[in-house]
Amino acid sequence: METLECQPLYLDIREFYEGLNMKVDQQIPLLLVERQALNEAMEGEKRGHHHLPETRGLCMSEEQIVSTVSRRPRFGPGFSIIELVTEPFRLTRQCEVTAILILFGLPRLLTGSILAHEMMHAWLRLKGYRGLSPEIEEGICQVLAHMWLDSEIMSGSGSNIASSSSSSSGPSKKGARSQFERKLGDFFKHQIESDSSPAYGDGFRSRQRGCAQIWSRSTLDHIRFTGSFPL
C-alpha cells in the first residue's frame, strides 16, 4: 500500500474509534514511509516508547520533513524493488500530534493494527493524558490494535451481502473474509497476546484483563489523573 491507497483504511479506523465514543477530531496526516525514513523520524522525536528493533509505526509530535512513499513500487526479478517513488512531506505543529507514520509494504491487516495502535497514542495526547508509564500507554494502545483486528475478522466472517433494509448504518462495506485473511488476523492477534516485552506485552495483558472497563469515562478519568489503571 502507498500513502494514498491507505487513506480508506485510515477512515475505517477513525470510524472504529468513533464507534467507541473516542472520536479523533484533529485531521492527522497519515504517511507510509520506508524503514530509513521511519528511523530518522524516530531520532527526531523527543517522546514516545519505541519497540526496537521492530518499530513499524510512530505517532509524531515534532516538526520534521519526512520522505513518504507516494507511488506503488515496481518490482524486478526476485521481487526486488527497482523503482520506489517518494516525496518530501513537511510536518507542521498545530497540536500535540503532527503525523502518524507507518512502515511501507506491510499487509493491510498488519498496517491497520499498527495504525489503530498509533491512533490511540494520538487520542491520548490530544485529550491531555500526560506522564503515563510505558506499560499503561502501550498496553492500552495494544488493546485497541487487538480490538480492531477482532472487529475486522468478525465483520467479515458472515455473508458479504448487504442488508436491503433502510437502517441508519447503511450497507456493510466489508465482504466475507477468506480463510487466509482470518488466519492472518489471528496470527497478528497472537503476536500481540504473546509479546514478551514489559511495556507492550505485559501492558497489553494487564489492560486486557480490565478491557470491559477501559472505555468507561470513570476509568479513563482515573488513568488521566493517577497515571495508573484502576484496581
Automatic annotation (TrEMBL):
Report a single Gene Ontology molecular function.
ubiquitin binding
Chain ranges of the Protein DA1-like domain: 19-225
Q: Please give the coiled-coil regions recorded for this protein.
A: none
Report the superkingdom from the record: Eukaryota
Q: Which InterPro entries match?
A: DA1-like, DA1-like_dom
The UniProt entry, under PANTHER family, shows: PROTEIN DA1-RELATED 1, PROTEIN DA1-RELATED 2
Q: What is this protein called?
A: Protein DA1-like domain-containing protein
Organism of origin is Vanilla planifolia
